[in-house]
Structure formats: structure tokens, C-alpha cells
Design brief:
mainly beta, seven-stranded antiparallel β-sheet, four-stranded antiparallel β-sheet, 11 strands, 0% helix
Length: 159
Amino acid sequence: MAATYAWSETNGAGAVVHDSIANLNMGDNDSYEIVPATYPVVAGTNAYEKYIRAKFSDTFTEISNMKFWKSIGEYKTDESIKAAANVAYVQPVKTTSSVATVAVPILESSALAIQSAAGTTTITAPGYTKYICLQLQTTSSTPAGAVNQKTFTFQYDEI
């Protein structure tokens, strides 16, 4: 049997974990699987930070070489998504993130290296990776309306 993984998102002051989420939509609300039209990000403001991590299950010997990057999707004018890898969870904020401070890489060659929850480069039993913090940021020059859809890639090797 092979490993499986699903995205997990944590929200709120109480660090409520939601496993197997369906999307990473960003918006003006600290919750998982939001509908952006219900919680739009106004130009010149930011979305709430997203704290996500991969959760591995089933039977495997080792997961290694974990990488994360934005593989598809164009930014609108003055829109960006900032990130930080291998961070601890803190309650998400809407103000400009002091955690997610670098642009999400757009090439595999510059992808964020992701660690296990234990801080190692391998996972040898079912469990989580460390957190990736993401934040959509805009300026007053960002056009109104929905942003373009983006695809994030999470890649790993399995033995």
C-alpha cells in the first residue's frame, strides 16, 4: 500500500484542526473552505493567513524530499501570495503577516523545502508536516473582483 496525503488547515485562537480540506480559498475570514464571494478581500487589504500542512496516512516506509510551490496561475496587478515554511501555528491575522514574508516560489527548483512535524527531512510513520503559512496580499491598485485561480504543488518522494 502507498502513502496518501491530504491538506489540513488550522484556524482560530484554539488551534482547531480541519483534516482533508477541499480547498485553500483565501478571504476575509479565518475559517477553512471559505467561499471567497462571501468573504472577499478588499483591494488594499490582505486575506487572513492560512496555516496548512500535509497529513500522511496509510502504509509507507519513508516520505522525503517534500517541496511546495505555486505551479499554475497568474497574479493580478499588485496581488501577491507570501509564504513561510516549517513554522509553528499562531492565530491567523489579517494585517500584513510577520510570518509569511517571502513570495511563494513559482518554480520547482526554488520550491520551499518542507519538514516533518518533528523538524526532520523525512516522515517514517503516519502524521503531519510542519506548517506552511500563506497570505494573499493586495494593494489599492489591485483590480476589484475575483483573483485568478492558482494551483499549488506539493511534491514528495516515497519509499
